[in-house]
Design a protein that fits this description.
This protein has 140 residues and is mostly helical. The protein contains five helices and no strands.
């Protein structure tokens, strides 16, 4: 009986930990801080740029969070996300130097291309093992 109670307590603790971790992944404040930290390193932001960049990142992370949790689907959410990205880029342009902005645009374009590559065309061109396309249990 004691072991059952211990197992239940452990299970509840672990489930709360997982739930808290999932919430942190979508928390706009955490996302904004991660974005700002990354931009500070990659764009070599100056001290006077940190606060305005963080404010913009938080503003748009909050908007994205609100859209993702709104229940919108498909093209509606895609259109909203595109508007947010466009507005964010316009505002960042006023905070970043010309060189920083160009570098940020390059990074965003590279990220978009990388994301497109990862999506595939939905016709089974991945690394699947079915129909003889994989390596099977090849021994080395």
């Amino acid at each position: 009986m004691k072991s059952i109670i211990s197992l239940l307590t452990l299970f509840l603790a672990l489930s709360q930990l997982v739930f808290a971790q999932k919430n942190n992944e979508i928390d706009p404040a955490i996302i904004a801080q991660r974005q700002t930290d990354q931009m500070q390193i990659e764009l070599q932001l100056k001290n006077n740029q940190l606060e305005p960049v963080h404010a913009l990142n938080f503003k748009y992370a909050t908007e994205i969070y609100n859209i993702k949790t709104s229940g919108l689907k498909g093209q509606v959410i895609a259109g909203q996300m595109q508007k947010i990205r466009s507005s964010r880029m316009k505002e960042l342009k006023t905070v970043l130097s010309k060189d920083q902005y160009k570098q940020y645009q390059k990074q965003q374009n590279a990220n978009q291309q990388q994301n497109q590559k990862g999506k595939g065309n939905g016709k089974g061109n991945g690394q699947g093992r079915g129909q003889g396309g994989g390596q099977g249990n090849k021994q080395f």
